[in-house]
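Amino Acid Chain and Its Fold in Token Form
===========================================
What this section holds: a protein sequence and its matching fold, both as plain text.
Structure line: whole-number tokens from a learned vocabulary of local backbone shapes, matched to residues.
Purpose: to set a sequence beside its fold so the mapping can be learned.
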Amino acid sequence: MTILFVLIALAAGAANPLQSGANAQLNRQLAQPVWAGIAVYATGLLGMVLMQLFIRQPLPAAHAIISVRSWAWLGGAISIVSTMAGLMLAHRLGSGVFTGVTLTASLVMSVLLDQFGLVGFAQRSVSPMRLLGCGLMISGAWLISRM
């Protein structure tokens, strides 16, 4: 099952630059980043509603909703930062630089979240190999940005 999860994660990662490019093109043509962002989230909501029509998950129980930690509801609001960055910067920086920088920042943040066991992640200590991986990602993003 792990290989399936890795393949799904690979597909999700491959979709990132496609999403950034599509969002940036939408913003370029509308010339209104906030309205482009609203369109991005509206189409995402439509996609989720259509998925629900096929999957048909029941509503979560009231006690489950009430017991969710307050910060766990902020994921959508936090995603506005990356959505707006993609809308306004992906075409200016190019797909390689934009994706390289954002993925590098994601990896470094992920290692920090693991180190301290934050936002629900199990604690996984920083190791020399993890630090080397972060360093290689930083180096790779820098090399890609050198044109």
Notes: Residues 1-66+82-92 form one domain. Residues 52 and 58 are 9 Å apart (CA to CA).
